[in-house]
Amino acid sequence: MTTNVPQNNNDNGAAIVAGPQARLNFLKTFLDERQKSIAPVLPKHLTAERLVKIAASAASRNPELLDCTPVSILVCLIDCGTLGLEPATPLGHAHLVPFMNNQAHQRESQLVIGYKGMIQLAHWSGEVADVYAHEVCKNDYFKYRLGTNRELLHEPTMDDRGEIVAFYAVVEYLSGAKGFAVMSKRQVDQIREFSASSKNAKSPWTTAYDQMGCKTAVRRMMKMVPMSPEKPLARGLAVDEAHEWGRRSNPLADMGFLDEPQIIDSPADAQVVTPSSPDASKSRGDALADKLAGKAGGGSPAS
Fold it and tell me: Over the stretch 19-78, which tens digit does the pLDDT of each residue have?
């Protein structure tokens, strides 16, 4: 028996299913019914059952996730699964952060890849021997030089380091070559402002700003790493940047749940137009819910 997907939320963004326990039970059932459709995209070290349990546990600890559409949580789990990362665990690989989608008038879950998750993806690239990042504070000694004789020096003071002024990331390739990227705090904060979840009190941008700054520097550095489209790093960079800049990834389309959508390229706009949909004004969550209700519930696994 297939669980009906709530198609709309009220003005406050709360799910139609009333009561925290009822919403948690609904979410568990919704995700359980889609395990067979999630499984084919997962790496060997991660199972659909574990992902579902992790999501349910995260929602029980953070009631705000229960206000998010179940489809948005499913999208985050599929993104994590294709990358091989576990969300909302002590590993710190990725985070499920609620945010209000004002365009669709509903709460949705946003996937935020953590600093440790980005480092893990870098190691899985097959090109990297080591990668690390640090924050630079006002009272540290810090100097870097570009050009044909690149150099980076950082000596943190043991006393009061002062406020953060910059971040940098360093990569060492298997060949022995090294590279680095430096970002000012202003550059990092500009990216933070475009993150849909940056204003959420439980967002890692709020609770672990220094780590998110380091991750942002690593992400910039990783764009220069040779990589294959099949490697998790390539997709991880695309997924992370899409979420940070307010444009959502669409793994369900790749799995056959959706016709390929046309994403309106605007950080403030989260709507999509689906070619086969007669109602182009529907939000992305509603469109996903329609397709999932018809294709994923009780259907055969996606190939």
Answer: 788 889 999 999 999 998 889 888 888 999 999 999 999 999 988 999 999 999 998 998
**Residue 151 in 3-state DSSP?**
strand
Q: Is residue 293 predicted with pLDDT exceeding 90?
A: no
Average pLDDT, the chain: 76
28 located within any domain = yes
Residue 196 sits in which domain range? 116-230
- Considering the domain boundaries, does residue 31 fall inside one? yes
- Cα-based distances in Å from 95 to 183, 207, 233, 275, 300: 23, 12, 17, 32, 29
Residue type, 168: Y
* Polymer length of the chain: 303
Domain end marker among 185, 204, 230? 230
Number of domains in the chain: 2
- Give the tens place of pLDDT for each residue, 112-145: 888 899 899 888 888 889 999 999 999 999 999 9
Question: Does position 104 have pLDDT exceeding 50, yes or no?
Answer: yes
Write the CB contacts of 202 (distance below 8 Å, at least 6 apart in sequence): 62, 64, 97, 98
Do 209 and 260 sit in the same domain of this protein? no
Contact between 59 and 65 under an 8 Å Cβ cutoff? The reply is yes
Q: Are residues 91 and 121 located together in one domain of the fold?
A: no
How far is residue 163's CA from residue 184's CA, in Å, rounded to a whole number?
12
39/241 Cα distance (integer angstroms): 25
Give the H/E segment covering residue 66: none
pLDDT > 90: percent of the chain? 33
CA–CA separation, 22 and 28 (whole Å): 10
0.90 surpassed by pTM:
no
- Which stretches within the chain are classed as H helix? 20-32, 35-38, 48-61, 70-83, 115-123, 185-194, 204-207, 209-222, 232-244, 251-254, 284-295
